[in-house]
Amino acid sequence: MAAAPKLKEAATWLVLVPVAFFFVYPLLKLLLLSVKTDEGIGWGTFAEMLADARTWTAVVNSLSAAGISTLISLAIGVSLAWLCAYTDIRWKGAIHVCALLPLLIPSYVMTLAWTQMAGPAGVLNRAASWLVGTPVELWNVYGLDGIIVVMGLSHYPLVYMLTLSVLYRIPKELEWAARSSGAHSRTVFWQVTLPLALPGIAGGGLLAFISGLDNFGIPAFLGIPEGIAVLSTLIYEQVIGFGPSAFARASVLSILLGMIALAGTGLQWLLLRKSRVDQTSAEDRSVRRPLGKRKSWVEAAVWLFLVVTSFLPLLSMASTAFIKAYGLPFISENLTLKHFLFVLRDHAGTREAISNSLMLASLAGALCLVVGTLFAYWRIQRPSPLGKAMEGAVSLPYALPGMVIGLAMILTWIEPIPGWQPGVYGTVWLILIAYVTRFLILQVKSSTVSIMQVGREVEEAARISGGRFWTRWSRILLPLYAPGMLTGLFLVFLTAFTELTISSLLWSSGAQTIGVVIFGFEQAGSTTLSTALSTMIVAVILLLLAAGGLWKRYWQRRVEG
Amino acid sequence: MNDAMVVGVSKRFGEVHALHQIDLQIKSGEFVALLGPSGCGKTTLLRLLAGFESPSSGEIWLNHERVADKNQLKPPEQRRIGMVFQSFALWPHLTVYENVAFPLRHQQNVPEVYKNNPGARVAEMLEMVGLGGMEKRYPSQLSGGQKQRVALARAIVFNPTLLLMDEPLSSLDAELRIQMRKEIQHIHRELGTSIVYVTHDQSEALAMADKIVVMRGGRVEQAGTPHEIYYSPQSPFVAKFVGRANFVKGQWADPHTFLLERDGQASLPLRVSQDFAPFHADQVLPVRPDQIKLHPWNEGADGVRGRVQHVQFQGRELLYSIQIGKEEWEVASDIGTSFSYGDQVAVEILV
After folding, report:
1. Cβ-nearest to B73 among A2, A462, A558
2. pTM (2 decimals)?
3. Transmembrane region positions (chain A) (predicted)?
């Protein structure tokens, strides 16, 4: 017989203490540093930073980049979602995968690709010059306008996904009822469909906005060379620039950025709570609006868009990687594999970075898989206000911009407890801790979906049939939770494998990551090397995606019949 | 001997009292139905028997062993109980065979014969529930009724001490429900296992159970045989919930004489053989729709006069709503009578 209550209490503490230490404490450290001055507690650093014109320029740049790019994401995401959810457009599966690509390919790789397509010497401008006969510049992706466009194209999948899910869940009958009450199909869209989908659309928009604030790769690649700073790049420059009060100044900027991001997250949370479309209601994937004669035109437009925004930049990037020397025309005698060989074989830093990133992604994935799934299980089995608060704490590091978390990690782990210096600062282990802290919520969310779907009775059936703890987990629960657990593993692995923001702050020699190396090549002007490495990364991601897709198909055939 | 006992069990969830001081005995081989509206505590009581919840106070005994009190709990996996869940709870990644064979491998005290040759035992069980030869199928390839049978086979394959069923038929369609009732009765006869069956459907309870426990608000309202529950309800709630009942207004002259109120006429005395003490305070007599007979009304007759308000054709019977004074009574009448809307009828009560 088990003494149940004591065990439950112990489990609660076992969750509570690590959550507080790993997820809440670093943020407190950050807050503390921002108000620490030579004379004790004070607003000195805040006053100094707020008086600095550069701070305000960065705030305005951050807000306008995130804001305007969100409008672009909304326009693309909502249109694409409506087409996929409502109309009889063909190849929906392929459109869906292409629309999700920008989420899976790291934004700095996509940015690099855009510089190869629309940079001053990119494919676009060279083609235009060749057509006109004299050198012309159609558009230069470097600068704030480029940041906005690339950001909008990187984050529209967030709007697309949230809108798609809410559109599928709007009961068809609501629209039929409006039609049979005499409303024209356009009226139905504006009066019924759009208001019902609005919480999902707005939630996706806010997510795109927060991601815009968080993003470091795009402004770092497109803004730093032009001297344009946003908050995330300004924090980076402060920390990298060192100086006596660098950390304090960076922490003030982090708090500014963090507050804006949290306001966005709060607003998004409120909106999702107000959603009037029941999240648990069944998805209806039937065609509601046949496009008729316009169908082929719409399809052509969609594919033109996907090709121009996803494939052309990536192909431009790949073409640069195969060129002997940057700037030579793309003809057969100029092609070479030497850049690929160089980064893979001869460049020690890259080899090290690849093995670091692989190790970091695998360990972070494995740790998150175990901890995140157990946390999700505990959270669902014992619903309580405390559990909810702890889930909030775990999601904080992901809701806050990566720069903010990177800084908080440095501040915490130099000396986590007064007198204890674990010596992880300046090693890959700090990056690992930071990754697990930041990405754990991805695994928790994915595992939660599976655990909720499987339901309590399935485990109870195993218990009542005599299944002990290990039997239940190995024979029943793990196989059934596998889809969600593997989705989470896939997400954490991929995100960590190509991560740039945190590692750009935490790296040191010998502890570089793939993102840091690509960023370093780009800053040093070694474009052929950065594109070669990026091209390989994209290939690896596409392979992983294909493998994941195949596995999912196998699973569905087996269990869902 | 396989019996179970619930002694003075209460269960609180935070501030909510789900069960108050429940006493219940399940004798060996008995089929007990826990009947009540949703939220009455019947499912909580079943989960306490299974071991998924522990009592806030009181004790639970299985086979003369105390398995739970407020300090200790023998976990479900050690209780040797079979259970059929409302949602079937089949494991979707295992075949029918693997689902049914699971308890044979993991339960305690499984007879050696079954353990040594699980294939034969599973086949025998599947045969019994009418699914012979379906071993290799996955649950997703089965219909709702077939899933229910697999769930049933899984629950009984190891000869459980006690079989618990939580609204097992509620997700099946009407025709299948009637058929499954017979099969559950058949299995009960074959195995002789004690069964605790939770339902909110009074006709299921009346049809199958040896004993019905009517629950309401976490308390036992009445326990007895189906016949007792139906014909001698001990509270207005039981009378209303199990079968329909008209609460006829009047006055109790003495425990065996009810004076029926009549519009503008002297009250009509009725002989009542049963004890209806719980209804004396309210001055009503519970009358089942089938305990009322209708006759054509003859002017000047001495009886209760009513007017037909609704007629519903039900196939083998007619359901009338009869207006009597300000009251409306439900009357079930055989198909031979034929009154239509607005007819005057004489109403006769046969209790």
Report:
1. A2
2. 0.85
3. 12-35, 55-82, 94-114, 147-168, 188-210, 248-271, 300-323, 358-378, 398-417, 424-442, 476-497, 533-551
Where residue B319 sits, what CATH number does that domain have? Answer: 2.40.50.140
pLDDT of residue A11: 76
Question: In terms of domains, do B154 and B226 share one?
Answer: yes
Q: In angstroms, rounded to a whole number, what is the distance separating the alpha carbons of residues A253 and A259?
A: 10
Asked which of A32-36, A230-234, A484-488, B194-198 is least confident by mean pLDDT, the reply is A32-36
Please give the residue range of the domain that contains residue B17. Answer: 4-231
- Is A133's Cβ below 8 Å from some Cβ in B? no
What's the whole-number mean pLDDT along residues A381-393?
88
Model pLDDT for residues B146-164, shown as the tens digit of each residue? 999 999 999 999 999 899 9
Average pLDDT of span A24-33:
90
Choose, out of B102, B148, B158, B198, the residue to mutate when testing the contact with A (most A CBs < 10 Å).
B102
DSSP, collapsed to helix, strand or coil, labels residue A202 as helix
Domain assignment of residue B327, yes or no: yes
Is residue A458 very low, low, confident or very high in pLDDT (cuts 50, 70, 90)?
A: very high
**To the nearest whole angstrom, how far is the Cα of B62 from the nearest Cα of chain A?**
14
What is the arithmetic mean of pLDDT over B198-212?
93
Average pLDDT, chain B: 90
Angle at B348 between CA B342 and CA B350, to 5 degrees: 140
- Cβ separation of B83 and A460 shorter than 8 Å? yes
Using the structure block, give the residue that is written with the tokens 């039981």.
Answer: B238
Please report which confidence band the pLDDT of residue B52 belongs to, taking 50, 70 and 90 as the band edges: very high
Element (H, E) at B307: strand B304-313
List CB contacts of A282: < 8 A, sequence separation 6 or more.
Answer: A169
Do the Cβ atoms of A498 and A210 come closer than 8 Å?
Answer: no
Q: Are residues B42 and B106 in the same domain?
A: yes
CB contact (8 A) between residue B91 and residue A462: yes
B209 shares a domain with B258: no
What total number of domains does chain B contain?
Answer: 2
Q: Of the candidates B231, B258, B277, which is a domain's last residue?
A: B231
Find the CB nearest A457 among B85, B92, B106: B85
Residues B59 and B133 placed together within one structural domain of the fold: yes
- Whether B82 sits inside 8 A of A464 (CB atoms) is yes
Query: Considering only CB atoms, which chain A residues are within 8 Å of B164?
Result: 464
Q: What is the ipTM of this complex?
A: 0.84
B207 with B131, same domain: the answer is: yes
User: φ and ψ at A182, to 5 degrees?
Assistant: 100, 10
- Domains, chain A, in order of start with CATH, read 49-281 (1.10.3720.10), 333-561 (1.10.3720.10)
End-to-end C-alpha distance for chain B, whole angstroms: 41
- B32 and B174 in one domain? yes
A51 at interface of B, judged by CB pairs closer than 8 A: no
Give B92's contacts in chain A (Cβ within 8 Å): 480, 559-560
pLDDT at A110: 94
Chain B residue numbers with beta carbons less than 8 Å from the beta carbon of A4 are 54, 73
Q: Are residues B57 and B110 in the same domain?
A: yes
Give the domain-ending residue among B231, B258, B292: B231
Contact A468 B77 (CB under 8 A): yes
* B99 and B62 housed in the same domain: yes
Residue B307 lies in a domain: yes
User: What letter would DSSP give residue B267?
Assistant: P
Q: Residue B1 above 60 pLDDT? A: no
How distant is the Cα of B171 from the closest Cα of chain A, in angstroms? Answer: 15
**Which stretch of A457-471, B30-44, B173-187 has the lowest confidence by average pLDDT?**
B173-187
Q: What is the mean pLDDT of residues A318-341?
A: 85
Which residue type is seen at A435?
Answer: Y
Tracing tokens 């089942």 back to the chain, one arrives at: B288
Asked if the Cβ–Cβ distance from B87 to A558 is below 8 Å, we say no
CATH, residue B129: 3.40.50.300
Please tell me whether residue B232 adopts helix, strand or coil conformation. Answer: coil
Q: To the nearest whole angstrom, how far is the Cα of B203 from the nearest Cα of chain A?
A: 26
Kindly state the average pLDDT of the residues A308-327: 89
Q: Give the amino acid at B19.
A: L
Q: What is the mean pLDDT of residues A457-469?
A: 93
From chain A, the residues in CB contact with B93 under 8 A are 479-480, 558-559
pLDDT attached to residue A49: 84
